[in-house]
Amino acid sequence: MASSALPAPEDILAFAADLADAARPLALAYFRTPLDILSKADESPVTVADRTIEAHLRGLIEARFPDHGIFGEEMGVKAGTTPEGGPVWVIDPIDGTKSFVTGLPLFGTLIAFLDGGVPVVGLIDMPALGERWTGLPGQARFGEAPARTSSCRRLAEARFFTTAPEGFTGADAARYQRLVARTALRRYGGDCYAYGLLASGHCDLIAETGLQPYDVMALVPVIRAAGGVITDWNGEDLTLDFDGRVLAAATPDLHAEALAILRG
């Protein structure tokens, strides 16, 4: 970590796990119940569950680490902090809200810890499935077991995931079509769950567009520690000001082949 005064990554991860443990029963208390659903500016649904979970997690973080920044999907950036600077928590209380409000169990809670803008610790929790992936430098786990990406190196053999094909428009849609046409198998939906599957070797390649920092920061430490590669469509590291495009692959060779297509 950039700052020696910060807790060790293992301690940060232990606290992140406590946060996920606190979020899980809240999510399940609202799941498959009548909900008041609103629409955000980007037309994605927001529920009372999102806001309740984020408010609770922010309170726990502020009590434990009052000097840390917080960047959440529903409540934005903690006043007086700069996400790109010192330690900051990036949280998505319910990633996959459309799944959540339609009773599909493929929604998750994402928790990331960044130091100096760099994702150091990441956690993907799937409340309805009781599954969890974690990542910190040199260690990715699915539950208590090590997580490892597949050895797939060629697009022609790749199992491909994306959340919503209709999300690709204009030039992005053309690049997406060229990429997906070369893969061996295609599956859709899943949001953050697909990245957990990639970290555990069950799929090989993911391409997305239109994402936000809270959608991806928790994924980066998990994928990298599991042996995969995750960048934007230019091959650059994902930062808090990335352009919404993500490419994740099981191996460097597979990533390079896919990246060449997405670059046009």
TrEMBL record:
GO molecular function, one term: histidinol-phosphatase activity
Required co-factors: Mg(2+)
PROSITE patterns, per database record: IMP_1
SUPFAM superfamilies, alphabetized: Carbohydrate phosphatase
InterPro entries: His_9_proposed (IPR011809), Inositol_monoP_metal-BS (IPR020583), Inositol_monoP_superfamily (IPR051090), Inositol_monophosphatase-like (IPR000760)
Pathway(s) per entry: Amino-acid biosynthesis; L-histidine biosynthesis; L-histidine from 5-phospho-alpha-D-ribose 1-diphosphate: step 8/9
Keywords, alphabetical: Amino-acid biosynthesis, Histidine biosynthesis, Hydrolase, Magnesium, Metal-binding
Enzyme Commission number: 3.1.3.15
Coiled-coil positions: none
Substrates-to-products reaction catalysed: L-histidinol phosphate + H2O = L-histidinol + phosphate
Entries under CDD domains matching the protein: Bacterial_IMPase_like_1
Enzyme class: hydrolase
Pfam assignment, any one: Inositol_P
Family under the similarity heading: Belongs to the inositol monophosphatase superfamily.
Protein name: Histidinol-phosphatase
Species name: Methylorubrum podarium
